[in-house]
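Wed. Picked up where I left off yesterday with eEF1A lysine and N-terminal methyltransferase. The coffee machine is broken again, so keeping this brief.
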Amino acid sequence: SPAEFGSARYWDRFFRQRGQRPFDRDRAGARRGCCALLLHKYVRPRDKVLVVGCGNSELSEQMYDVGMCEDIINIDISDAVIRQMRERSASTRPQMSYLRMDMLQMDFPDAHFQVVLDKGTLDALLTDEEEATLAKVDQMFAEISRVLQVGGRYLCVSLAQAHVLKKAVEYFSQEGWVVRIHQVASSGDKQQFVLPVFVYVMTKFRKIPGSAAQILEICPEEQDKPMRVQSAEQLVAAVKDRQHYALLCSQISKTPCREQVSLDLCDKESGKPRYTLHVVDSPAVKPSRDNHFAIFIIPQGRETEWLFGTEEGRRQLAASAGFGRLLTVALHREQHYEGMAGIQAELSGKVMELAPPGLPARQQVPFLSVGGDIGVRAVRHCGSSPLSGQFVVEDVKGDGTCYFRRLIFLQNRNVVQSEARLLAPTPLPGQKKRRKDKKKASPTEPPGAIDKSYLCCEHHKAMVAGLCLLGGPDALPGELAVLVVGLGGGSLPLFVHDYFSEAHVAVVEIDPSMLEVATRWFGFSQGDRMQVHLSDGLDYVAKLAAEAPAQYDAVMFDVDSKDLTVGMSCPPPAFVEKPFLQKVKTILKPEGVFVLNLVCRDARLKESVLAALRDVFPLLYARRIQGEVNEILLCQPGPAGRRDPAELGARARALEGALRQPGRPWDSSYTLADMLQAVHIL
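Structure written out below (C-alpha cells, as returned):
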C-alpha cells in the first residue's frame, strides 16, 4: 500500500528481492544523461552534496565518476540498500559515503550542505494528501531547509503529480525561496516512458519578514531561458499542460486520430498563442512512403474560411491533399512571422512530435500552403468597448488578387463579424509598391475604398434575397421601409440603401463603438434615407410596437450574442422569445417580411426557436448556407399556405431587375436568382 513507502521494513524487503539492479522511482533511467546535463548547471565540483533516499540509483556514482562532484553523502532508511551501495563503491569512490539515516530526523549540523539532491523520494513519500502524510512532508522540507546553506539548492527529480508539485511550490515559495521547474529533455524509449520528468530547483534565500514577493519560474525543455509566472497555480497549470502534451504525442504516435486534435503553441516571451495546430487523419488514404505526413500553413487572414476553419473543411482539405495525416497551422494576428522559411525553421522540431505511426525514419515531411506564401494581414485598428469587448479591424488578402477588410471580436476570434471588399487596397507589409518614389506611406493615409456593391457574407446575400417576398408577382414595391437590428460594419444596410433608391433604412445598434468603426473603416454614412438609432434592439422594437405599429416592409435581425455559453451565437435568446416575436410582427406591414439570421448549434434550442416562429408567423421559409452554421429564416405574417415556386422565381427576377437598373454598379459574380436556389419551405 502507499503507506509502506515510508517504511524501512518495506524498502529492506524490496531491495533484497531486487538485488543489484538499479531502481529509479521516477522511471527516468532512460533520461539520466539529460538529467546529468541539467545537474551540471546547479552542482559545482567543490559543493558538499546530500542525496536523500538514495536507494540503489546510479546517479550519485555517475556524478562522482564524471568529476561533477566527489563530496557526496547518500542516506536511506533501508539498511539493506546502504550495505549494498557501500560494497559497490568502497574501493572506487573513496570520498563518497553511504549512511543509514531517516531524512525526517537527520544528524547533520545546520547549514552543512550546498546541495540536497532528491531523485524521486518526494514522489514516493507524498502518495496522498492525508494529514499524516502532509505532516511527514513538512518535516522532510524543514530538515532539508535546516541542513542547506543560504544560497544552497534543493534539486528534486519528480514526475510532478499535481498534488506533489503544488505542495513543494507552496512550501518553499512561502519560505522566500526561488522556485524554478525544469522539464528534462526526452530521450530513450518514448513508448515506455510517456510522462515527462521534471527537476524542481529550490534556491534558499533568507526570508524577509512581511515580504509577499515570490519568484516562480519554469524552463521548458526546448529553451534555457526561464519563464516567470505569477502564482503557484499558474506554475502547476504550466506543468500540467506539458504533461498533457506528452500524453497526446504518445497517443497519436501509436494510433490514428478518430477525432481532430487541436492545440496552441504559445510565444515564449508573451505566453500568447502563436500557432494553432489541428491534427487531421484521413483513414481512406492508402499509405505509401511519400504520403504519410504533411504540414499545411494556412495563409494569414484565411483561417476563418470554411476549408480551414471548420472540422469538415479540414477533413476535405486533408483528403484532397492525399496525406494520411495533415497538420494544419493557423497564424495568429498578434504575432510577427519571418516568411515561410522562418515558420518552417521554427516549427520543424515541434511538428515531428505529432508525426503519425509508421512514419519512416528520416522521412522528409513537406510544408504546404496556398500560393506558396503565408498571406498578408495588416491590423488597421484595435479597440475595445464595454459591450463588444476587444476587437480589431484588419485588411487581408483573399484567394487571388482581392483584398478584404474585416471586423473581428477577439472573444470569438475565429468568426468574421463583418467583411467588405476593398476596391484599392492600401499597401500592406511585404507587398511591393508600384510607385517609383521611395517615400513611405503616411500613417494617416486614408484606407482603400470600400466596394459597397459587393456583399462578402453569404448570409447577407440570402437576407437581401428575402426581399423577393415583398410586393406583387411582377414588381417590387416603390418605397421600402426597412429596419435592420445590428449594424456591425454596416454592409447589409448599406447594400439595401444603395440598391433601392427609394428605400428608407433604420438601423438599431446598441454599441456606439460599432457605429464609429462602421463609419471610419467600412464606408458607412447616414443621410435622409439612412438613420442609426443607438439603442437596445429589444427596447426599440417594444417601443415601436406600442407607438407605431405596421410601418415596416422588412425587419432584419443580424445581431450577435455576447454570451458564448449558450448554443446560439446569433441572435441573443431574448430576440426569439415568443412575446418579443409578437412585437416584431406588430411593427410589420401585413405583407411584410421578417428576416432572421440564425446561428444555432444546439438542436433542441433550434427546434424551440423554430416552434416559437411558427406560432407567430404562419409562413416560414428557410435558406441554409452551404458550409456554414448560419440559416436565414424568412417569416411573413400573411395567411398560412405554401407560395407557388413560380411566383417566388418571378419575384426574384423582379428584384434582380431592380438591382440591374442602368447606371448602377453590379458585381456579376452572383445574382439574386442564384441566392434563391436553396430556398426550401420548412
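Quick read: The mean pLDDT is 82.
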